Amino acid sequence: MVSPSDLTDPVHESAPAPSEDGAKTSFRAPAPESPPGEDLPRIVPRRRIGRLLSAAVALLLFAMVVNSVVRNRAFQWDVVGSYFTSAAVLDGLLLTLWLTALVMVLGFVLGIPLAVMRLSGNPVLATLSWGFVWIFRSTPLLVQLLFWFNIGALYPTLGLGIPFGPQFVTVKTVNLLGPALTAVIGLTLHEAAYAAEVVRGGILSVDAGQTEAAQALGIGKARTLRRIVVPQAMRSIVPTAGNMLIGTLKGTSIVSVLAVHDLLYSVQLVYNQTYQVIPLLVVATLWYIAVTTVLSVGQFYVERHYARGAARTLPPTPVQRLRARLAAYRLSLRSLSNY
């Protein structure tokens, strides 16, 4: 009689079993298992001939463009180098950076209340906010600047006093609004209209359940907006605000029509005297590219900061991404060499 323990005993499993005529037949012991992965086929990455050819063609075209730019004497790179850090150009660059920062800060300071007014239940405030955004988004920026520059034709004097009553202080508009202040006013009102829409879109991107949960806990509307809604909305606001910042930096060049000594106008003053138009325009272009690159890097890290609550793993930095691509490229070359 066979016990249950005999059925699971490895000795009985390998023991010879009797045949029909009573003779015992021998069984071969099972072969030892091979280590895992020893007999598996080697995985060879697929050769992407089209990708390699397209990359080679793109690099060839890029090399041709760089060669044509570097070896073209019409660019006058020696003149570019001599004016790149000149006092006139650096003064214009400083004014451009100051104007960009001031306009962005004032634009969002005015745009945030406009966005809140647009989302409020008060129909008067919502209508006024919508009308402001509608007017300043519909009018070209150059037209707005020219309008504010000639505002003295409509209002020769500006005064401070009782509404619909006597005025205590009056000043001539021409003496009050110079080119620089006119540029700040025009750019700020233009940016405020776009900033209001950016902030409104960011607030609407937050789930309504966050506000409902705050109301259930007895948190006021102002504190809910400031401590709960806005921090979560920053994930949607920052990318668009970064694009607005870069656009404002380049858009400040339009104030040159008002004789504001920004970067472009300073360069124009120089090449109007030396007639070296192309080298001076290259100087302005290189400075715009340099500042835009710095702002783009800062935008990336700000976006990465506000992505902490939305992703378990933060997006890789450009250095980490470059290292990963180099490691993958080395691995693919090693696999192709072993193939």
Instruction: Provide the residue-averaged pLDDT.
Output: 82
Residue ranges: pLDDT <50 for 5 or more in a row? 4-15, 23-27
The number of distinct β-strands equals: 2
**Treating each run of at least 4 consecutive H or I residues as one helix, how many helices?**
14
**Helix and strand string, N-terminal first?**
HHHHHHHEEHHHHHHH
Give the radius of gyration: 35 Å
Describe this structure in words.
This protein has 339 residues and is mainly alpha-helical. The chain is built from 14 helices and two strands. The protein has helices spanning 4-8, 10-14, 49-70, 77-84, 87-119, 123-138, 141-149, 173-176, 179-204, 208-216, 221-251, 263-274, 277-306, 318-338, and strands spanning 157-161, 167-172. The chain has a two-stranded antiparallel sheet with strand order 1-2. It starts with a helix and ends with a helix.
